TrEMBL record:
Its EC number is 4.2.2.29. Keywords: Cell membrane, Cell wall biogenesis/degradation, Lyase, Membrane, Transmembrane, Transmembrane helix. The keyword Lipid metabolism does not apply. This is Endolytic murein transglycosylase. Belongs to the transglycosylase MltG family. GO terms for cellular component: plasma membrane. PANTHER family: ENDOLYTIC MUREIN TRANSGLYCOSYLASE (PTHR30518). The record marks 223 as: Important for catalytic activity. Functions as a peptidoglycan terminase that cleaves nascent peptidoglycan strands endolytically to terminate their elongation. GO terms for molecular function: lytic endotransglycosylase activity.
Length: 342
């Protein structure tokens, strides 16, 4: 057997050299992989995963943004973790200080769903809503087209030409690319939540259908200066309906003429012009809601304050410059307060 100086066989020396080379190769591979999976050092980045995006495409995007060093390393880690198919549509907040394992865990978790907050104020008309949505980044014209489809509410269908009165004023969270139809359906559904069996029964006890209730609530919304006044205004209107007295509500005149309330001109005959909405020229409720009332207005009709302190029915009210509302039983008392407070 061939031996080298020192007494070791040649094959032993060769084997030791091969083992050393293997160890060096393994160490090099380990350091290489560790380098690829180490934090890339890039800044914060919000990844948006869209429908149809693949893990490969996402990994390449993150490599290009300096969030990871190697797209292949991320794909390998997620396959090893069994999360390669767990990407969800939405936003992922990432940072180059994360290791590939850290990025993989983030991508396997829940996505942040992007939303746009849109506030629809109480008392706005259908015609006012497109501008609100346009400002929030949606297609206002397309939303208006859907708002003109009364079939989306069973209470408006066949009775009016738009959804006036049947979209609920509130703050909504919509996805940035939500469809106009879905947006309107959401607001209609929220309004329908107000029509509980108990409340519908309360309205029926007042001889009001759901639509009548909404019409009256829209008038209260337009007339009352604040929520505290709403039951008082509602009580006056309910009493006048019961007694067969014209409601005489200025906002109904304005709506019928397509004007805003400050634009009404008595000298131009606005209050004598007949429209289906005028409660000066016609008895009873107007032809439909004149805006989209909020919860306080809706509740005020069901919980109206119909009596004066002396027990008589409230039939007249006026808003004085001092910010107070004055309520009377007779027209003579009403004229007296007009002279006194206006």
């Amino acid at each position: 057997m061939t031996r080298l100086r020192g007494g070791r066989p040649v094959w032993v020396r060769v084997l030791l050299i091969l083992l050393a080379l293997l160890l060096l190769a393994a160490l090099g591979a380990f350091l290489y992989v560790r380098n690829l999976t180490a934090p890339a050092g890039g800044g914060p980045y919000t990844l948006e995963v869209k429908p149809g995006d693949t893990l490969g495409a996402v990994a390449r995007e993150l490599q290009g943004k300096g969030i990871i060093k190697s797209a292949d390393a991320l794909r390998f880690v997620m396959r090893q973790n069994g999360t390669a198919g767990s990407l969800k549509e939405g936003l992922y907040d990432l940072d180059g200080s994360l290791s590939v394992q850290g990025v993989a865990e983030k991508l396997a978790g829940p996505a942040r769903i992007p939303v746009v907050n849109v506030t629809v104020p109480e008392g706005r008309r259908i015609q006012d809503l497109p501008a609100i949505f346009q400002k929030a980044g949606f297609d206002g014209a397309a939303i208006l087209a859907v708002l003109k489809d009364p079939s989306l509410s069973k209470y408006a269908a066949g009775k009016q030409n738009t959804l006036e009165g049947f979209v609920f004023p509130a703050t909504y969270e919509f996805r940035p690319k939500e469809t106009p139809r879905k947006i309107v359906e959401t607001m209609v559904a929220r309004m329908n939540d107000e029509f509980t069996p108990e409340r519908v029964a309360q309205a029926k006890a007042l001889d009001l259908s759901v639509r009548d209730w909404v019409i009256l609530a829209s008038m209260v919304q337009a007339e009352a200066a604040n929520d505290l006044e709403m039951p008082i205004v509602a009580g006056v209107f309910l009493n006048r309906l019961k007694d067969g007295i014209a409601l005489g509500s200025d906002p109904t005149v304005a709506y019928g003429l397509g004007k805003d309330l400050p634009e009404l001109d008595r000298s131009a005959g606005d209050f004598t012009k007949d429209t289906p909405y005028s409660t000066y020229t016609r008895m009873g409720l107007p032809a439909g809601p004149i805006n989209n009332p909020g919860e306080a207005a809706l509740q005020s009709v069901l919980n109206a304050n119909r009596k004066l302190a002396d027990g008589r029915d409230a039939l007249y009210f006026l808003h004085a410059p001092d910010g107070k509302i004055y309520v009377n039983h007779t027209y003579a008392e009403h004229l007296r307060d007009n002279e006194r407070y206006r």
